[in-house]
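Entry 14. Ran structure prediction on the chain below.
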Amino acid sequence: MKKTLIASALLLAAPSFAADWQTIHTEHFNVHYSVEHADFAKSTAAELEIVRIKVLEQQNRALDKTVDVVVFDPLNAANGFALPTSNNPVMALFTTPPQSDTVISNSAGWQQLLVLHEYIHLVHLAQPTRNDWQQKVRGIWDLYDLTYSDTPRWVAEGYATLIESKMTGRGRLFDNYSESILREFAQQGALPTYGQLNGEQGFMGGSMAYLMGSRFLNWLEQNYSEQTLDSVWTRMQGVKTRDFDEAFSGVFGQSAAKLYRRFIAEYTYKAMQIEQGEVLLNSELWLELNLYASNPALSKDGSKIAIVERDKESNTKLIIYSTDDNIKAQEEFTKAQKELLENDAQDIPDAAPSVFKREQKQVLNQINRAGIANPQWVNNTTLYFNAYSNEESGIYNKVSDIFSYNTDTGNITQLTELAGIRRFSVTSNGETLYGEQIRDGYSELVKVDLNTQTITPLFTKSLETTYDYPILSPDESKLAYLSTSLNENWQLYIQGVGGEQLSVPMPNGYQYLSQPSFSLNGESLYFVAGLNSATDIYNYNIESKTLTKLTQGQEAVAHPIEMADGSLLYFSITADGPNIKTLPKAIKSTVVTEFSANKKAPLLIVNEHTLPKAKIYTHQTTQQTNYNVLDQHATFALGTQYYSASTSLLDLSIKSSDLLKQLDLQAGYSTDLHDGALHGGYVQAKYNALDVKLKLALFDYDLNTSRQYQASLNTDIDARGGFAAVSYPVKFGPLSLTPEIAYNYTDYKISHKSWTRLGVAQNWQYDRQDFAIGQSVYASWYDGSSKSSNWQGYDLAAKIFGKAFGIPLYANFDQKQRDDNSLALGGFSSNLINQQQSSEHVLSSDLPFYSATAKRYQGYGGGFSFKEGMPWLYYKQHQLDDTVYAQSYGLKYQGDFSFGMGPAGVNDLTFNMGLSRVEGDSFEDEMRAWLSFYYSL
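Output, structure tokens:
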């Protein structure tokens, strides 16, 4: 469960929600949506109440609390998540529908599947416990509430997937495409172990919690009963505290791990029985690929093939291979084996690989993590592909656009601007493309004039219809495309330039359909269709209207492409990822004579709990209001900070926010756990709904430096005051600028101080995965006054960062100066004292507060890490008035975690830890450590 929450947070990465949101209030749900998603949201509001009724019938449980539902499209991709807090449950629904070749494409409708799956998460995981005192704590403490039920990821996702399938008759449990891949895993002895179900390693590792988890739970229900499995969930919410393993074993008499082994044995046995009856497929390995691969594209002259690959480190690359045999690699192999035998005549040489890796002609790394997808050749030197752009109105809202790549020069050019184009096909002159456009939940088939940026819909848009894989014929006289509507299978159509349309017949009983491609002469279409838990390659001759089946379920197949000699390249999906194989031209094939009679999708289970047919609801009968930022939800927040150089704090606060984090509030008290060195209270507020961001703070604290762990200048400070800052972040592609104006007033025992700060923060980066470079600059000017004088000063911070050979690096420089005032070196950031609202502090975790003072400070440092997200090995030098005061080196890590929406307790967390050696002439050299975890706005 915890891993699922972290993954969802990474999906969002703290998005920015604008002010123009609306809310639909139903009896049991509040549906919040951005105005452009009004149609999807209104239909969702009706679907939610229908799903709740049916789930209550099927589960005999529901939620007492009103559920907050967010409808938006942050990634231009199909997804969603749930935050199952018992006190404030939340669902997030992404409006973009899935494409045809995904494991979630088998549904009556995206909206229905999404609502059902995420609501099951809440009903399953957000139930209140029957332990009164634990439930009372859950009711006031979000973080405890969210992590109370430490349900394994495979259980949470597997059960939601099981119910999604049982209540619709479709879904991933009954998905033909998923089953064909799992069968391959089983036949290769590669189904995940019980310990691997929660992980994400390996090919499709992240999907196994859904696919194998649901099948295992279904097996348990079939071999025991639905009531037996349901008893596990009842036991997990008992007065007696139990984790999943204890709850499960108490019901089934055996551990889940042991029963899973039996399930895997039965599943593998059935898969092997099927393999024994299969006819041998006359195919050969053509190219081994690296874990994940998609959308191969053959160049116009057939000399190159472009493939998008993603490795285990999630590095995405567009790799262009030669289609010729790699003679050089063959010769080098032969030479190496010859030398081996010359040195040792009795040695046994290596067996030659079945095919030598084809030569890589070009490699294009994704830039700034924008992704690469769907390469299409315009000519033999130019490719168009998909990558993400960022909407500046919401800097984390990704939109799919079209880019060009010249393989000779390496130049990359953006061709569309926030168009939302996914898969597409381009004309030979590169000026027109046909694609599927996704905006506001609507999938449309469009024609794009790249010269004028004119986008023309080919059909009337509807939330009921989704398009995929528009493919132009070689002579550009025909356009083939996939389309699906509610409660139907995907269909393949051929559209002529004159407007005539042909529906390609499908084999009777099919469920899966995807990846069409024209033959080189344009007379026929290849595609992949699935039935009876297998996927196969088909060919449809347009003139003779003949449908031929080229494979017989021997492999999980994808992406057929015809070569110049008439042979066929295709993806063969294995447990290690897809590889490219080739089918000879003269392959034995079967003419299909039994065709599907209609578009309706088969339902594999129908009972009294089955949801009604999917529908888009257009009549709103419920209340609608402007989104209310004052609808705040509060939580208890606990933090603790330990710094061996200075002191320790326990932070207790009440934290509040609205669902979209447009207004955040926090009030608390930090008390010293050592000797009263630092303690005090604070109030903070942050408003983010507008382009201009506002932050306010009040503070009242006492700092007695003589009571710190380490010696420092003796100072006893009693400070109270306020702070206000206004900033205006703007973004220009990879460049961001944030100007700011801030004001502070602080009253001391015997004096007061106030200052105004004008500052600007700038950041730029260019990321090519293994190589990256970036820089940031922060500059500010202070104008201040105290009881006895006026003063000025400035802060300057510069940083260069990046990666070399995948190793993260950075170097930084800081300089601060105050006229007629002093700077105090040392101490740590907290809700009482921090760098943003204090002008006199130069904070350093490994030094005590007021280690030394000066008019001018300079700091130099740098570091490296072995991998992104891991701790840094660092060095830092401190200079005061041009004299080196101290240096430190060691290990440190700092991370800020914010979900970007939802309960206040899962946002604005700061984590800081480190271990360093500190050296200086004015104190004894020693090791120092710190560990900090607290909430702060």
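The radius of gyration is 31 Å. Will compare against last week's run tomorrow.
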